[in-house]
Design brief:
Residues 1-21 form the signal peptide. The protein is an alpha+beta fold. It is built from six helices and 13 strands. It has helices at residues 2-13, 63-75, 94-104, 118-122, 152-168, 207-215; strands at residues 18-19, 36-37, 50-56, 82-89, 111-114, 133-136, 142-146, 178-183, 186-191, 196-199, 204-205, 219-222, 229-234. Strands 1-7-6-3-4-5-2 form a seven-stranded mixed β-sheet. The protein has a four-stranded mixed β-sheet with strand order 11-10-13-12, with helices on one face. A two-stranded antiparallel sheet has the order 8-9.
Amino acid sequence: MIRFYLLLVVLALSHFGYAQEAGGSKIFKPPGNAIKVSGQTKVDPLLKPLKLVTVLDPKGSSIDRELEVWNGLMGSMDRDSIGYIFLVQDTEDIEQFKRYWFTDRKMDYPFYYDTERKVIEANGLSIDSPGQTLLLDENNTIILSGGSPINTDPYNRYRAKLYKQTVEMGMEGAIRGVIVELTDTGMKWFYANEPVYLTEQGEVIPKNQADAGIRSKKWVPAISPLSDTVRLVKRSP
């Protein structure tokens, strides 16, 4: 009984809740390519066997932080195995947002400009809760849903679920870094493969390059904003 109440307290402390669809029976209606804004990218997220869908508010105060976390999250996963469907709520100036997305934030990934929020409403998502995130299987069945990965609890849950899904589908190595799981006995964590290394600018770099930079004293490992990454800070002269 004590364990049960402790579990409830842990879940209640999370800023955004998370809910798994009962029976995994709800199907997500994906956006059409007609509303995809690709820039110079050629990626088609809709063709990937697993997909993460998130709702972004261009005017939201946390949009910079959201994209920082998504860049890190995507850098720790195999993009051939997992697609990312960014549903961007309608805004007054799409050209300005395109510059922000591709130039200012250097997002090398397409987004779906959800004019009049048709996709959001068709899937019963709340327009008042940006940051909602869904995990879809190969049939677009919703297997996990919750808040933005900008918060630790949903961030860990998406990664843990994706790790299990990719392993079951024979895609070992698709998820790198620390996997954090909430079990009946408490929190459990382990390295799925190798840590994910980020520069101060948020660029994901290979482990051998990171190791070489640390050995040469070019970088110093520091605390990262993401739970499964090592941020490399330039050593002071």
